[in-house]
Amino acid sequence: MINNPKPPRPENNVISLLSHSESIKIFENKSDEEIWKAFDKGDEFAFNYIYRIYVVKMFQYGCQFAKDHSLIQDCIQNIFIDLRRKRGGLSTVVSIKAYLFKILYREIIRKQNKNKIVGQQSFEISEEGFSIEYSHETKLINDESMERKRELVMMALEKLSQRQRQAILLMYEEGMSYKEISVAMEFSEVKSARKVIYRALASLKDLLHEKAPYLK
User: Per its record, what are the GO molecular function terms (predicted)?
Assistant: First the structure.
């Protein structure tokens, strides 16, 4: 995970942010669907809440698979500008984070493909993709004394496919449900997310047993 990220700053007269404390008071106890509907109807406090809550999360997520931080910032900025322009005609959203992660991933890939066409070399997709850094809060391993086991798990994670690591990150680092993962990764069915997670965890188990059969 990227430490101390620098999220995009809103441009003057393009994205105006109101008092964050006021938006928190209004929306902290509302569902994502309610917040999104308010935003779609033109509520500036709803827009402020969404931007403030998710902009850093989006930047951190983008840094998992893209190397150019300034381009990630541009993608996020463009996403919020585009969403604001489309207010009044947005689709229903149940999980704001999953939806924003989905369109961010799509936008970064679009930019990558565009840069390839015009011959630009400034933007690269990380070859490793979706590296996962663990802290003591991490659900996969929560015993700080078991450093060796933590190292082995991280080594095993590197053996997974990029999509498997992406799914693991969304579930264990971002705390997403299978339904949210299916949205973020654009699966047509929730069971596809379950299948990817199941196979990833099964692979992790096999890899760990291979590297350290004494670990349970």
Answer: DNA binding; sigma factor activity
Buried b (16+ CB within 10 A) or exposed e, 6-28: ebbebeeeebeeeeeeebeebbe
**Nearest-CA neighbor of 130 among 101, 76, 183, 167?**
167
pLDDT in tens, the chain (216 residues): 444 555 555 444 344 555 677 788 889 899 999 999 999 999 999 999 999 999 999 999 999 888 889 899 999 999 999 999 999 999 999 999 999 999 999 999 888 787 665 444 443 444 455 555 544 445 555 555 466 777 777 788 888 888 998 999 999 889 999 999 999 999 999 999 999 999 999 998 888 877 666 555
Predicted TM-score (pTM) of the model is: 0.75
CATH code of the domain containing 152: 1.10.10.10
> 65, 97, 118: which is the final residue of a domain?
118
Measured at the CA of 121, the angle between CA 120 and CA 125, to 5 degrees, comes to: 115
CA distance 46 to 63: 26
| Count of structural domains within the chain | 2
Pair 109, 28 in one domain: yes
The answer to whether residues 109 and 26 belong to one domain is: yes
Q: Decide if 50 contacts 32 (C-beta within 8 A).
A: no
